[in-house]
Each structure stands twice: as structure tokens, then as C-alpha cells.
Amino acid sequence: MMNFNFNSIEPIYLQVSEQIEDAIFTGTFAEGERVPSTTEISKQYHINPATVLKGMNLLVAADLLEKRRGLGMFVKSGAQERVTQRRQDMFYKNYIVSLVQEAQKLGLTEEQLWQLIQRGWNKDERTKD
């Protein structure tokens, strides 16, 4: 089920794209499976069909969906892996690089950084802070 925030500054077409991508990532939409049509989504959520199509076309351009004439949009083979790889790359760029830079500014050794990461990874230790 999709959930749109019509009060967000993020355009609806991007929300459509992100939510379908997330469904591919989590396996809700499996590879080879048909995703809801632009008409189905637009009617169910009261969104302009052109807006929905714009979001879906982003996923076609990202090689996650393919159009099958007369049948609809389908999740492409390897789409889940491509989403996972892209998200890992973004995680590295948005979090890891700055984490390491900040650790270096603090004078932490690699071992000390690993210890902090392990502490954060361990649920029991996180709840103590």
C-alpha cells in the first residue's frame, strides 16, 4: 500500500517513484511481476495519471521497470539487486565518508571507530545510552 504526503515539499511523482522502488527493494513487487498501472494508482490515490506516469518513467530510466505493450509495467530482472547496490553506494557516500572524516577529526584510531560501530550495532548497548 502506498502512502502519499500531499503537504510535502517533495513532488508526488518522486514519492510514487520512491515508493515503488522501495517495494521492489523489499520484495513486495518481485522481479517479473506486474506493478499497478498508472490508472489504478491514480484512481486509488486520487493523483493525476500524468504524475504517476512521470514517477514510473523514472523507474524505467533507472532500469527497474519495463513497459510491455498492452500489458503494463513489470519489474525487470535484476532490479532488486540494482536498487540494493545503488542504496549501498548512497549509504557509503552520505554516511560512511563523513563518519570516517569525523572520526579522524576526533583523533580516533580505526580500532576505536570499529569499537564504536560494534557498540552501536549491539542493541543492548544502544539502549544503555
From TrEMBL:
PROSITE patterns: HTH_GNTR. The keyword Transcription applies. Pfam families: GntR. Residues 10-78 form the HTH gntR-type domain. InterPro entries: Tscrpt_reg_HTH_GntR, WH-like_DNA-bd_sf, WH_DNA-bd_sf. Transmembrane segments: none annotated. CDD domains: WHTH_GntR. The keyword Transcription regulation applies. This is GntR family transcriptional regulator. It comes from Ligilactobacillus saerimneri 30a. The lineage of its organism: Bacteria, Bacillati, Bacillota, Bacilli, Lactobacillales.
